[in-house]
């Protein structure tokens, strides 16, 4: 039976306390709206909007809401300048003909339009009016909304720390030991000089040298020749410095390669391996000759592109893991990443499977608990069922504004392996997620080993309270969005256990860092996570005729995973543990 004609949008006060107001907005037929003096019937541009002036007593006698979401806005007092939080809790009821599986999508799209930066309402009247207008003109499948506005305590406005690579945007980065260590780790295995660090970020060389001296005293950094420095390895006594990789018998040749980009990712992957041995190969390059005061010439030397390879076992499989010297937004960094990958696959020619393992930024779902990607979860690159063209990774190079408001054109390149063996194994792991999660065992075992080494970084799972979801509204405003709750009767996530999500992974600085573009791009291309532009790496993998590859991203933030955060080490470990579970699902090599 179809829905009756619901011609008017009616707003009715439900209740009011000293710090909260609750309102109902619902669809009603004209015949059911009282025409007495207790209502205001709008006209003109607001025709079809009705305001009840008094609260109704029967509004609580309804079925429970089908969906709800909460977000918090940060209000600034014009008199005092103090920030206060206000909770805005929306509950949704839908028309009976809307299938249950469509309800979260409708609620999420409604919410995105409600908080759209172009016309985000800055006062109560504007907020309520926008709710009513959206219901009237855009979302006919929403039957009723209940809105609670509640004042919370005074708070400091939220801030987002900078990562070292954001100096590209012209923002001054404060010089600290942590930032210097971050740059040395990012460059690893390439040694880096004091001058390199100082020049990149406009720091004084003397101050950089002082930071490095402190890092050396803590055993985190060591000096090499040519005035360069590098990170002290997890177990430097076991690292062999070689001019070229030693020849290996066929049985010891790795068949699986794992590529990481950040130092914590390399540690996480290596923690999954047994019988490890690490080789570092340094290269040097000559620089233009320099004339000394006595008239003689001196030709300086510096380190070039270096490589680190850790060999080990996972079950019956031989693994080689490497770390890219840097992945960034400069053409040089992208080229270097591709070159390192080509060198890896040229050195180890029996590699059949390639994993790109590390951290990324999750794409949250504000209303669907089962689809919501949270910090510590793992996204495995997988084609979506609704894709016309199969792809597991999308790189967006340029964004152009279209003719209409909010209309954008994206220049993209999509990637997909010729074989989906690894994706099928990931799907099988996810299908058994409620009964079995072997990656959790691997994670805990690795964590014990990492903890015993007393590393500088903490790989334990951060407190759940630190998993906060913020959304930027334009350039000035930020709202905090509550994580969705499970529907009644739905299975809940295992507390403290990373969930696996299957979907495409995206990259591109513009779409990853701007909230509005990020949402639009994610919806269009089905992206569940963003990372730091690995297109050059994937190009190299495909160019070297490797048909099986998968990208695994442990979720460290809700951007692209690039900035250092307390979730980064744990997210890297979660991704590495899922990688191990996938490798254990592969058939053993035949020779």
From TrEMBL:
One GO process term, biological-process aspect: nucleoside metabolic process
SUPFAM superfamilies recorded: Purine and uridine phosphorylases, Winged helix' DNA-binding domain
Positions of the Winged helix-turn-helix domain: 170-231
Domain of life: Eukaryota
A Pfam family the protein falls into: HTH_69
PANTHER family: AGAP000321-PA, PNP_UDP_1 DOMAIN-CONTAINING PROTEIN
Full protein name: Uncharacterized protein LOC113208839 isoform X1
């Amino acid at each position: 039976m179809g829905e009756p004609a619901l011609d008017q949008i009616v707003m009715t006060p439900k209740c009011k306390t000293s710090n909260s107001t609750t309102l109902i907005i619902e669809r009603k037929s004209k015949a059911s709206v009282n025409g007495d003096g207790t209502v205001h019937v709008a006209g003109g541009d607001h025709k079809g909007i009705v305001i009840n002036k008094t609260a109704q007593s029967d509004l609580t006698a309804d079925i429970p809401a089908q969906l709800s979401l909460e977000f918090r806005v940060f209000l600034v007092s014009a008199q005092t300048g103090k920030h206060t939080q206000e909770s805005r809790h929306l509950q949704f009821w839908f028309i009976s003909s809307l299938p249950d599986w469509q309800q979260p999508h409708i609620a999420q799209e409604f919410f995105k339009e409600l908080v759209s930066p172009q016309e985000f309402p800055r006062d109560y009247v504007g907020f309520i009016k926008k709710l009513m207008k959206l219901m009237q003109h855009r979302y006919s499948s929403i039957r009723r909304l209940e809105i609670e506005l509640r004042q919370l305590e005074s708070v400091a406005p939220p801030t987002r720390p900078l990562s070292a690579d954001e100096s590209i945007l012209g923002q001054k980065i404060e010089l600290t030991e942590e930032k210097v260590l971050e740059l040395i780790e990012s460059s690893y295995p390439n040694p880096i000089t004091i001058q390199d660090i100082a020049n990149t970020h406009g720091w004084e060389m003397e101050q950089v040298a002082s930071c490095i001296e402190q890092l050396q005293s803590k055993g985190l950094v060591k000096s090499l020749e040519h005035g360069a420095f590098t990170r002290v390895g997890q177990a430097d006594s076991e690292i062999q410095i070689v001019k070229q990789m030693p020849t290996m018998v066929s049985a010891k040749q790795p068949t699986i390669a794992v590529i990481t980009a950040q130092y914590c990712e390399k540690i996480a992957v290596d923690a999954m391996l047994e019988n490890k041995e690490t080789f570092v190969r340094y290269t040097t390059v000559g620089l233009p000759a320099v004339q000394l005061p006595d008239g003689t010439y001196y030709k300086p030397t510096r380190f070039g592109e270096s490589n680190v390879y850790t060999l080990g076992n996972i079950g019956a499989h031989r693994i080689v893991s490497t770390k890219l010297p840097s992945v960034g937004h400069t053409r040089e960094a992208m080229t270097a990443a591709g070159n390192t990958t080509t060198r890896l696959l040229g050195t180890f020619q029996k590699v059949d499977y390639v994993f790109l393992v590390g951290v990324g930024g999750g794409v949250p779902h504000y209303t669907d608990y089962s689809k919501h990607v949270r910090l510590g979860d793992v996204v495995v690159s997988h084609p979506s069922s609704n894709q016309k063209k199969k792809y597991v990774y999308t790189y967006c190079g340029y964004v152009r504004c279209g003719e209409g408001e909010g209309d954008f054109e994206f220049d993209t390149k999509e990637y997909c392996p010729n074989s989906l063996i690894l994706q099928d194994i990931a799907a099988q792991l996810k299908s058994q997620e409620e009964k079995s999660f072997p990656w959790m065992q691997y994670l805990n075992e690795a964590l014990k080993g990492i903890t015993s080494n007393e590393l500088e970084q903490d790989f334990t799972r951060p407190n759940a309270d630190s998993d906060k979801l913020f959304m930027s509204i334009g350039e000035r405003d930020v709202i905090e969005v509550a994580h969705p709750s499970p529907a009644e009767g739905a299975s809940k996530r295992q507390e403290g256990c990373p969930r696996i999500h299957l979907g495409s992974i995206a990259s591109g600085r513009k779409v990853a860092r701007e909230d509005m573009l990020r949402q639009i791009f994610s919806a269009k291309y089905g992206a569940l996570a963003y990372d730091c532009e690995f297109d050059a790496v994937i190009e190299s993998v495909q160019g070297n005729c490797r048909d099986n590859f998968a990208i695994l991203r442990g979720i460290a933030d809700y951007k692209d995973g690039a900035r250092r955060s307390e979730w980064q080490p744990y997210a890297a470990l979660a991704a590495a543990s899922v990688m191990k579970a996938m490798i254990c699902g592969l058939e053993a090599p035949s020779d």
